[in-house]
Specification:
Blueprint: E1 3-8, H1 10-23, H2 31-35, E2 40-46, E3 49-57, E4 67-73, H3 81-92, E5 96-100, H4 104-113, E6 114-126, E7 137-141, E8 159-163, E9 166-174, E10 181-188, H5 197-211, E11 215-221, H6 225-233, E12 236-247
Parallel strand pairs: 4-5, 10-11
Antiparallel strand pairs: 1-2, 2-3, 3-4, 5-12, 6-11, 6-12, 7-8, 8-9, 9-10
Helix pairs in contact: 3-4, 5-6
Length: 251
């Protein structure tokens, strides 16, 4: 059975990607790469019939597309997924792979075709409703006259935590991920850290996220222990990791 990987347009893979998103019912970290035109799309075919797709982005540069980050094959053709992935690698000349470990198919391809694997990012999903309290603090939407402390990592966001008129934390949720998921973020004023306020803030942002019709998710660096503990305390759990690797030579 002839197998092909044919470079195509994003619009041609969207019907298959809808199935991919339904199958992977969680936040896709690089979802916005498609919308921002940062990807090359490949249609995977068997006997001329479209049965899957692959997506390539740049590892270091937007223009230089060299990293497989999305791979989907219709369930009826999973048995030949490895052969299709090999065709994708040959046609695209991709040299790297980056996958979410909670995406089963591309994770398997990563383990089969890649070497030098490492993870730099931890992914989180909502797990339960925590019951943290912060007496004397007010969680509310940001106002135009709020005086915000200097941020070093995250943007200010649409929500703040206030204490006696002082803003001690800000944050919100990003909406450029696959619906209905949104990415929760926050930053606490250095003078108010290590008091549990970050976890309380995330807990309240989660509620705002649901009220906006979105499902909260989050991510943090592997070495950011403080952020990890904050998210866990706020009722989130580890959903997976971002796994990076180099495509090993193959015949």
């Amino acid at each position: 059975m002839p197998l092909d990987a044919i470079k195509t347009t994003l619009s041609q893979i969207l019907p298959l990607r809808e199935i991919f998103l339904q199958e992977n019912n969680f936040q896709i970290r690089y979802n916005a790469c498609h919308e921002r035109n940062w990807t090359d799309s490949y249609l995977l075919q068997a006997d001329g019939m479209a049965i899957g797709y692959g997506s390539i982005k740049g590892k270091e540069e937007i223009i230089h597309r060299d990293t497989v980050f999305e791979f989907f094959v219709l369930p009826s053709f999973i048995k030949i997924a490895s052969l299709l992935f090999k065709e994708l690698l040959i046609t695209s000349n991709a040299r790297f792979i980056e996958c979410q470990t909670n995406q089963d198919l591309i994770y398997k391809m990563t383990m089969e075709y890649a070497e030098g694997l490492y993870s730099d990012t931890m992914l989180f999903e909502d797990d339960h409703c925590s019951a943290l309290t912060a007496p004397g603090f007010i969680f509310r939407q940001k106002r135009t006259d709020d005086i915000i402390f200097k941020h070093h990592v995250e943007p200010e966001g649409d929500w703040v935590l206030e204490k006696n008129g002082d803003i001690v934390a800000t944050g919100g949720f990003l909406l450029h991920y696959n619906k209905p998921f949104a990415d929760v973020y926050m930053e606490v004023d250095p003078d108010w850290r290590q008091r549990g306020l970050g976890s309380y803030f995330v807990q309240e942002v989660k509620k705002a996220c649901y009220l906006a019709g979105r499902v909260p998710a989050a991510r943090t660096g592997m070495d950011n222990i403080a952020s990890r503990n904050t998210l866990l305390s706020a009722g989130m759990s580890i959903a997976g990791h971002m796994l990076n690797g180099t495509i090993r030579p193959f015949q």
